[in-house]
Amino acid sequence: MRGACLLPPFPPPQPSRQRLPSLRHLLPSSPLYKPPLNNRLNFKSLFSLSSSSSLSSLSEAMVKPLEEADVGISCYISPLSGFRGILKHRYADFIVNEVDCDGNVVRLTSFDFPEEVAEVVVDERSASDFDYSEKIEMFRSISGDADAALLSEFLERVSSGDVREDDFVLLSPDEDKSHRTEVHKFFKENLKLLITDVVKVPPGNSKAVRVRFSGGRGGGARKGSRKRKGRDDNNPSEDQRFDSRGSKTWPENLGKFLRFHLYKENKDTQEALGVIAKMLGVQQKSFGFAGTKDKRAVTTQRVTVFKQQAKKLALLNDRLIGIKVGDFCHVEEGLVLGKLSGNRFTIVLRGVVADCDDTIRAAADSLGKNGFINYFGLQRFGSGSVPTHLVGAALLRGEWKAAVGLILDPRVGERPEIREGREYFKQSGDAEGTLKKLPHYLVAERALLQCLKKCPGNYLQALKAIPRTLRMMYVHSYQSYLWNHAASLRVQRYGIDQVVLGDLVYCKGAPVRLPNPDPVEVRDLNGGVTDEGEEDDDIIASENARPVKILDAGDLSQGEYTLADVVLPLPGSSVHYPENDVARIYQEVAEKDGIKLNKTVHTAKEFSITSLKGGYRHVFHRPSDFTWELLSYTDEDKSLSETDLEIISGKSLEFSEKNYTCNLEESEQAAAPPARKALKLGFTLSASCYATMAIRELMKSSTSTAFHKSL
User: Is 531 assigned a catalytic role?
Assistant: First the structure.
């Protein structure tokens, strides 16, 4: 069976280029064939603009919000009819709970904080009040007479007060790591007023333990000096700043990271953490988390913060609005992006309208059984009128000024004061004045303007001033754009019944080694050495190092692989492409944007497609633990699902089962106001999968915000 598809979303090629064989003959006979819903973006003009540095007419083209067909989302798995419903009528209709690496659903269950041992405080008595002879003899048995003599002399200076902030003593060179560890342990357990690290000393850059007086200030390091090594590794002088990481007073039996559950309503993750950071008086980067969650939603996720007392965070709950923290515990490691297995969704679709209830039931059952096409959702491409993949395309072409313009130029639908600030910069070029007009949450825009204020006209440097995860989002968005087109062609051409010759899959059993991909050509237009900036962080969650193989006739005859195994690549230098018609769509769509996938035309490594490793993503995904329920309601503002906060606070849903969650037959007999239908869904998706794409498959309608606002 072939998947049902909309019209191909990319424009007809130029006359000089080869055109893909038409697939339109497949569409009229499909029960799901529909033209793109109000395809408001003029693709012919869009593609011609994307390969041009002229931005004057771009804003004219981007007069309407982005639609799914604009980013390659055009097919469905199921041939069943769809229905209408409103997604996110209330933000509480979209509940997300993170699922950790062990498969546990993260929920807010308690505001209690654990009993914590008070922080270790260095004895404030004068160092001269102590007799260190016993400690010195203990150290002599570990490190020998020479080092014991050095320590004894240094302790005498400490006792007499004749020691400056930067004074230290170097023990004998020691290449035995286990012995150095024993030395560190001795000082940590017996001489807490001294702290240690390792430096290189001449001759031969041998390693030696350096001992320094903490001064009761957790290491006495100067403000901001936390570098392990100085500018000259051969000279252990004050150029080698002391490593004071972890040396601040902290109970030894307590994990250095406080882990807690962050509950938030109608706020994005960074916004919520920014509020907490400000209240705690710490930098926002002190927090670690596994993934960002939807803004217009109620979400719960795990967060870690370095060396904070749980009680201090718990006391913030009375002051936090739309944010709660709880379920505290101390752990040894902080969270990093990608350290999760997925997310659990509880979604309510309101105002459901279908030709009959059986249509809804059949659609829900099909989604649970067959899944959906694993597209990157519209969120991947930004919520503004200028999609992030267009900025990514400009970066990949090396059009720095054009990229800056796309980010800074006026946009449709923004608040008047923001649009005024953008218009001001477009007309005046006054970066400093524009900064006063734009709010602080426009992180990318402000980073660009701060740099342009100092270095007018240096557009590449301004782009690099944007926080790395944010600026790489633009390039990754373009990768996702190409992937979506490839996924649509895979369904259009080969259907959804079986794997086909040339499909790409993750290997089962023993890894199958493929020949290395063709070498990548890197051109330096300036004739110099290519930029050697930091390497790609593999921010795309699906870029996992798993072996893949291309299916041959033998694989098909054995029947070992199914559609669930099929993957498609996110373009990069380390990926392989399927050996069938799907492969060429990558090149053809990229070429229309003036981009070559096997070469780069500029020296900015991080904005080069050939410097990205790439990755793979499953084409099809089936939700797990899938449940659904048809409800009836009369009040649009009443909750139809419980949040973690409502459960923990003992607040039951503000409607009675008889009046609001009765079955449809009962509701039809209810008195005015007339009851409306709602569909409540519960399911778990793997990390990087989009719940909106599951909803799209269910309803066979657009998931764009503009579309649902129109309902």
Answer: no
